[in-house]
Amino acid sequence: MKTLFLLPFFFSLVYFLSDKAECYSHKKNTISQNKHEIAAIYPADSSKNKENPVIPGDFADPSIIRQGDMYYASGTSSEWAPHYPLFQSTNLLQWQQIGYVFSKTPSWASASFWAPELFYHNGMYYVYYVARKKSDGISCIGVATSQDPAKGFTDHGILLEFGKEAIDPFVMEDSGKLYITWKAYGLDQRPIEILGSRLSNDGLKVEGEPFMLLRDDEKKGLEGQCLVKRNGYYYLFYSVGNCCGGGCSYQVAVARSASLKGPYVRFSNNPILSQTEDWKCTGHGTIVTSKEGKDFYLYHAYSKTDGVYTGRQGMLAAVTWDAQTGWPYIQPLGEKVAIKKNFRDDFSKDSLSGAWQWDFRHTQPDYKVKEGKLYLSGKTAADNLTGTALTVRPLSGDYEITTVIVNYNASLKGLVLYGDAGQSVGIGIKNNTVQIWEVKNQKRMILAEEEIRVKMPLQLKMKIDKGYQCRFYWSEEGKNWTEIKTGSDYYNAGFLPPWDRSPRPGLMQQGVVAEPAVFSFFTIINQ
Length: 527
What we know:
Number of strands: 38
GO molecular function: hydrolase activity, hydrolyzing O-glycosyl compounds
Strand content: over 45%
Organism: Ilyomonas limi
Pfam families: GH43_C2, Glyco_hydro_43
Family: Belongs to the glycosyl hydrolase 43 family.
Oligomer: single chain
Keywords: Glycosidase, Hydrolase
Number of helices: 1
Number of domains: 2
Structural class: mainly beta
Shape: elongated
CATH superfamily of the largest domain: Glycosyl hydrolase domain, family 43
CATH topology of the largest domain: Tachylectin-2, Chain A
């Protein structure tokens, strides 16, 4: 049994809704608000709204379902553990994180935990997910089940291997039969295809020969699909372009067919969702339908202000259907300014808050929470020049992080902005010396250091602007701060973002396990 990593830490966010259809993959849906509240939230022309994320911060490739009065959503965790953050909501407006799909890495998998697909069938919750095999690094689709997402998932291993990779699963039920679709040939010298195949009645085996739904003959990119059946047509929503990073070009398009197996005809007015005034590279979502019959599309996008430094954030849109042609339209939502929650962990609980994640490929953290303190050390891989880092998702590009270190030893202990084990920067104390350090191009360098003569505890602070402009401070009492300069007005951490995820701030220790870092609190204040 893969037990769910339960969270005392919850994200609560304020947002906005709208319109209609039925997602045929048994993605049932509901909004626990009265009709007057829904009407007030759903304006006549929501395209004029200033849209905001419903799940801010790095939350790519989201999947959403409803069962009863509860919505569940999960998204890509990539190289962070625990794997696949799991959120719930009763109204699509306020979301809280209840844990992770996997608290431990599945035994067969090594990396790249992408694009989870949530599904409900015959009293069972499923997650179809992507990861790389340990044996050869090929991305495959696995499956896990649970009777209650809040009580843990059981992994059933690899469901589907196909060529050089099989990614982006989507599952639906059609006429009492289960089907899975996926992206194929993305690493081959041929057009990408969206393929489909039958699943066994229990959803745990692939049966029969695969069939093609759509092919990328123009070689623009094709992935992140979702299927909806409505009024005799199967509507295939998909993403085109480059998904990730500064050069992303994602857009959402749609095609339809009178048969699940095609042929599919592309909509002449594609794309149906593209960049807006404040957001770009929109795509890779799924559709959920409320009890009131309204359809919503949960997808990801980059903020044009914060860009890669906050990652692909969870966005919400209304799906409406043309009464004459039947084709869908997508309208991003969010007239009000989202409430961005600050986070403080004073380590007062018996276990580590579920807000924390780490790079599981490069470190095995050794931590305990005891009497209001976090004790942190860990075993690191040979190519890890950073040390052990526990990190949280930044919700904006402008924020401050602060901590208090209460112990003295030869380990480096402090704050970190972590892109990867070979891409990081931070401030820490080692013995009685405060250091500003960087790991860049697989080299570690001390940028500045200052010997101090103060008694522990010691407070450290990093101020980040625009996601990459870093400044470093220390204080004895937390009121008067001393800045340590790195040679210019700010340190440029623009090299940190990996191609598919945002850098993350947090706590770090570099040294032997027997000399842990001891922290009494951590805060992140979003500006």
